[in-house]
Structure formats: structure tokens, C-alpha cells
Amino acid sequence: MKKIMIIDDEKDLVDFVKIRLEANGYQVVSAYDGEEGVVICLRENPDLVLLDILIPKIDGLKVCQALKKGPSTAGIPIIMLTAKDRTEDIKLAREAGADGYIIKPFDSATLLLNIKDQLDKVK
Amino acid sequence: MKIANRISLSFLTLIIVLTVIASSIFYLIARGNLQNAIYAQLEITVQQSSRNVETYLEMLKVYTAQFSKSVVLENLLQALRKSPQASKETFDTAMKRLRRTKAEAPEIYEFLLLDASGRVVASSDESSIGLDKSKDEYFINAKKNVFIKDAYYSEQLKERLIAVAAPFLDSNTDEFIGVLVARVKMTGIDKITLESAGASKTGEVYIVNKNGYMITPSKFLKGTFLKQKVDTAGFRNRLLDRQVTIFSDYRGVKVLGSHVYIPETQWYLLAQIDEKEAFAPLMKLYVLFLFILFTVPVFAYLLSMYLAKVIVGPIHSLQKGMEVIGGGNLKYRVATAANDEIGHLSRVFDDMTENLQKSETERKRMLEELEKKNRELLKLDTLKSEFVSVVSHELRTPLSIIKEGVSLVLDRVTGEINPTQSKILTTSKDNIDRLSRIINSLLDISKIESGKVELKKKAVDLRVLIKNVVSSFEAGAHEKGLELKVSLPQEGELNLYIDEDRIIQVFTNLIGNSLKFTEKGYIGISLVDKGNEIEFTVSDTGIGISAEDLPKVFRKFMQFGRVAGNGEKGTGLGLSIAKGLIELHKGRIWVKSEPGKGSKFIFTLPRNPA
């Protein structure tokens, strides 16, 4: 079973996404800020990370960079969740090393599809 | 050149020129006067001298003439006329007389008594007796009148002499019987000339005979008697023209001189003085003038410096003031006390600076205000941007959570649900979407109005775009029994550099409207390539728009007519958003409509990327 990590400060959203993903056969771990996110990521070693840009303590872009640099976490695909749809933010996400991005608000179908694609790539 | 230097130079030049001119004129006048004075003096000298000489000669003539009336001498001559030998007594008496007379006059060197044939029959010097003097001038010329023989040098006697000869005439018959010759030393005449010369160093008086030879001694040269030809061009010029007062003499030295002609002996008497000596007094004057010529310019220069300073000083103050103020220091004032034109100018300048300072202060104040306003505007703008993004995020996030939650249950993830629950949740989900659409519209118009829309342009194939949009409406159109007519040009490329999503949004809006307000007929989508732009038309056979409402169509929050059936009311922002988006692409949008006859919405998009 694949483990998916979600880092987002919106607790309600995290809860719903967790239910959705678990219903689709994934194991889910979560964190609500950047600092916590990095720590738990290192500990849990997930197969994929869903990362929101606007999170407290350490912002999403920095977390992305950090994870991509870390030897044990560099290989984990990261999908950025961004509420903004400006090309600038997408570019920043790309530059930070994100493997993909989804614009919020997203629908579950898009989410599941993106996750599947990224996990397939790793294989 | 600086003004000060120009003034100095002009002044200096003027002074020097004036000094030179004045000095020269002065000098020339002084010289002229001196020359005239000396010349006058020389004139007097020659006149006097020549008179003396003439008197002397006259005296000699008279003396000789008188002596030629001597009875004693006549006796001898008469006796010799009769016989070759006269009596001893007659002869001795004559001889004695001759000797005695000679002794009385020391200048007389010798007396000669000649008979009618020119033979010396008696003489104060015995050795001369018997000599033939018939060829001599004094014999030839003294037959009728007393004759003076020009000065000559007697080799025989080693003396400089002139001779005066008087004819002996028979006292009864006036017949020519002989000549009495008095040979006179030149010393008498010499004395006259020497006396006349005066006390000057180079001044001399001398006599030149008709052949041009000096016959009185020269002050400077020895042995000039009948040897020194006084025949210089200068001398000749002088003889020709009495106006020539300066000429070069027999030595070749320039002299100031005068002359007079003694007709009796055809002699020229000259009185001269070296030019140098004559004009010596002028030397002092000359030196004085040189001194003036050198000192006056110095004073002139100093004066001119002062003058220049007086003029240029205030100008410099003004200049300095201008530099300081020009450099930015508006507080500086020239503050001159001068009362002249430049002073006035300086004060006017200060006033001007005062005004400048005031307006500068004003300007700074206005600038500050402007900057403040600008900062406020920027803040406002930032606020707008923040509003858009914050609202965007804050509204969308809970909405998406709600939607996800509803979806989870609807998708049976949490377990089975009954049809009623399903319907309720479906309705809820639809309304969430509706709300989303409204929020999006509001945010869109907000962005468009505050200029926060970024167009993501790329080359888009219009055929593909339109096909996709139309296909998304096919279901809806079919449901209402309406036809979707697409009419595109068969050939030619239809590519535009546009924001695809936004143009789809425009089409969606227009076609959506048409669908809403058309009950029967068709909805037509077409385009025309107009070269530099493409014109799109979305037309319908719907209820149309009244003439009253037509101009208001693109306004915000405008809604028209009643929609039959259960249709969405919408926000009334669709057309204003569409207009905003088209205009962002630098295109135009307008509408043609008639109530009951349907509507035509037309918009253009330019070919060239703006």
C-alpha cells in the first residue's frame, strides 16, 4: 500500500482528502505546517507528498526544496497544491522542484489521477 | 579675453600711443626750434664774417691802389720806359719805398713792381727783380683795375698768399705803364675766419675758392690749403638750395651750416657746426622722453587695473553668486552695495533668487504631497490585489472543502445512501458549483476592473477552439430542441495569438446566453477573416433585446427578461466580463438585436499580438 503525505494547514480539507484517499487504497499521513511536515516526512518516508504552498512556519516552496535536497527524500514525488492560478506561482513551484501541481479548488477525480500518474512514473 | 585684461590693454595701448605721439611731436618741435636758432646764429656768423673779409679785401685794394699812385714808383717806371736802365737813385728810392711800405704791413709778404711788359723792375725782395711775370694773372688782369688774385701756394716762397695788383697809369696820360703787386699772406683772412668760429667744439668758419678748394685752415684736418676739395654732394646741394641746412661736409660729417658768397674773389664762406654738437641739448630731452615712455605705461597699467577692478569686481560677485545659486544653494544672496548698473542688476538677481527659493519650497511641498498621494494610491492598489487574492483563496477554500465533503458521501465512500439522500446531496453539489461560478464571476470582474488580469497568450487554432466549445453545448441545445450551426471558412489558417481559456469563457458566456433566451430555432456561430482582425458572430433566434435595454447590455449586474422555465438567473456579470476580456485582447464587442427577432453578438480579435 502506498503511503501518501499531505501537508496543508486547512484541517477540514485534510480530513476529507484523507477519507477519499483511504477509500482508494492509500495510507495517509498528515502535517499542518512546514516544519512538522519535514519532520514527519523524514520519519514516515512516504511514496508521495501533497504539499500546499501557503502553510505556516516554513512555506511550501521551501519545504519542497528541502525535501528534494534531502538524500532520503529526494526521490519522493511532490505535488504542490496551489490556490493561485498565476503562471508565476506555477513557475515557482516548478523551480522549487515540484513534480506536479494542482490548482485549488480541485475535484477528487483530478487529484486521484495526478497521484496515480506520479506514482506510476516512479515505477 | 577677460574684461579686466581688455581694459588694461586698451588703456595701455592708448596711453603708449599718446605718449609716443606727444613725445615725438614735442621732440620734433624742440629740434626744429633748436635747429632754427643755431642756423640763425650761423647766418649771422657768415654774414658778419664775410663782411669782415670783404672789408679786408677792400682795404687791401684801396691800399694797393693808393700805393700805385706813388710818385716814386711812377718815376721809376717812367724812367725805365725811356731807357732800359734807370738811374740808381730812382731805383734805390723806389726800392726803399717798397721795403718800407712792406715793413709797415706785416701781412704783406712782398711788393712787386712790374713794368708794362710784366717784368719785375723793383721788389721788396731783391731776388725777385728781373723775373718775368707777364704770364701771371695779376699782371694780365690788373691793366685797368685793381685785381685780386685768388689764393695760391707759392712753392718758391713756401707761403700761402693772395695777391692784390693795381695798374700803374701815367698821371698825365693815364697810359698803362706798369702793375704794382702786393703779395699778401693769408694769415689776415685766416684770422677773420678763426675769430668768427666762436667757442664751440666743432664749430668752424672757412673759405672755399671758386674751384672748390679750402683756402683757410680746417679745425680738424691739416694741410687742407688748396688740397682739400670741398666738393661733397651735400655741399653742392647746399650751394644750390639755401633751404638745405644740414649736409655732409668735406670730412663726410653731417653738419648744420650756412654759407655766403663773396663775389669779389668768387669765394664761398662757410660757417658750420657738427650736427651732433648742435643737437646735443636735445639728447637730454630725448632721454627724458624715453623715461616718460617707460614709466607712463606702468602708471597707466596700474590705473587700468584699478579701473578694471571697479568694473569687473561687481561682475565677479554676480558671477560667483550665479555659480553658487546655479549649484543649488538658493539661500545665497549677492548683496552688493554698489550703486551702478551692475549693482542694480545684482539686486534684481537677488530678488529673482528669492522668488526662486520660494517657488522651490512650494515645489518641494507639492512634491511631498504628491509622493504621499502616490504612496496611498500604491497602498490602495496593493489592497486591491490582496483583496482579489485573499478573497479568492478564502472563499474558494471552504467551498472546495464543502464540495469534497458532499462528494465523499455522494460517491458512497462513507457507505451506501438512499435515493433521497442522493438527490439532496446532488442538489447541494450543484448549488456549490453555482456558488463557485458566482464567486468566479465576481472575482473576474474585480480583476478586470483593477487591471489584475494576466492574459496567457498562445497560438490557438480557432477551428479547434470553437469545435470544443460548441460540443460542450450540444447536449443542452439538443434538450431544448435547438440547432447549433457552425459556419467557418473552409480554407486558410485560423490561428490567433490569444488566451485560450479566456476566449472560451467569452464563447461560453455568449452561447450560454443565447441558449437561455432562445426557445426555438438555432444558435449560429461564425467568423469572418478581415485580414488584420477576425470577426466572430454568435447569433440566435431568441427573444431579442429591446431598444431601450440595448445600450445597457454590457453593464454590470444587468439582467434582462424573464427566463421561461427553471433557469439560472445568474449574476448579470457575464457580458461585462466578456467585454472586459475582449477589450484586454484589444478587440471590440457589440450587439445587434430586435425584440422577437433574435440577437447577434459580434466581437473582433486582432491578428497582430498587441
The pLDDT mean of chain B sits at: 85
Fraction of helical residues of chain A: 40-55%
Main sheet of chain A, how many strands, which sense, barrel? 5 strands, parallel
Low-confidence stretches of chain A: none
CATH topology of chain A: Rossmann fold
- Total count of helical runs of at least 4 residues of chain A: 5
Number of strands of chain A: 5
Largest sheet of chain A, order of strands side by side?
A: 2-1-3-4-5
Give the overall silhouette of chain B: rod-shaped
Q: What string gives the helices and strands of chain A in order?
A: EHEHEHEHEH
Structural class from helices and strands of chain B? Answer: alpha+beta
SSE map:
The complex is a heterodimer of chains A (123) and B (610).
Chain A: E1 3-7, H1 11-23, E2 27-31, H2 34-44, E3 48-52, H3 60-69, E4 78-82, H4 87-96, E5 100-103, H5 108-122
Helix pairs in contact in A: 2-3
Chain B: H1 3-67, H2 71-82, H3 88-104, E1 108-115, E2 120-123, H4 137-140, E3 147-154, E4 159-169, E5 176-185, H5 187-197, E6 204-208, H6 233-240, E7 246-248, E8 254-262, E9 267-274, H7 275-278, H8 280-326, H9 341-410, H10 419-449, E10 457-461, H11 462-480, E11 483-487, E12 495-499, H12 500-517, E13 522-529, E14 533-540, H13 574-584, E15 589-594, E16 598-606
Helix pairs in contact in B: 1-5, 1-8, 2-3, 8-9, 9-10, 10-13, 11-12, 12-13
